[in-house]
Amino acid sequence: MFRSTLFFIIAAACVLAASTAARASLNPYTEEFTADSANWRDSTGLSPLAWSATGGPDSSSYASTSFNFLTSAPNATPPIMRAQDEFNSSGNAFVGNWITDGVNQLSVDVRHNAPTPLTFFTRMASPVNFPGVAAVNFVPVIPNTWTTLIFPIVPGNPQFVFEGPPATFSSVFSSVGHLQVGVMVPAALAGFDQSFTFDVDKASIT
Known about the structure:
The protein is mainly beta. The protein has 3 helices and 11 strands; from the N terminus they run ααβββββββββαββ. Strands 1, 2, 3, 5, 8 and 11 form a 6-stranded antiparallel sheet that branches.
């Protein structure tokens, strides 16, 4: 359902755990990966992102991972980078009730070296991974260029694709436990056996 709905919205645009609910996110907060990858993990959730001391959007540190589209179908929406409460990513700075904490924007800098522009999204979900919402960056990110993605955290944002009828703005953002960054798989890369690099920096809530 999410994949088909996400594809429809992209196409149109281009032509809860009680303990978490009680926790306050650190707003404002920006993850700059100053010393390490801050417990952010790869697409599987098993391995930490790699860390680089220089080369970020302001020439400072950043984190990265690789992803292979060999087993991905066209228009699939795999999360590629994960910041989640069970990993203590960024010291759980993104975990909490974004509504009462006053979070009204999420932004993140990304870069990739795939041979074609890619449509990125962020995904926010509860600590048990549902309900959730994907926020789609409608303008594809060109290769080898740091690009800032901006997602207003407001009801009615046309970037939002809620996962199923039970998910609403209130049900998702009142208890955020998972923050993920992913891409929509283009047909040209689906089933393509080559690993590409994805970089992230300055994930920020304000």
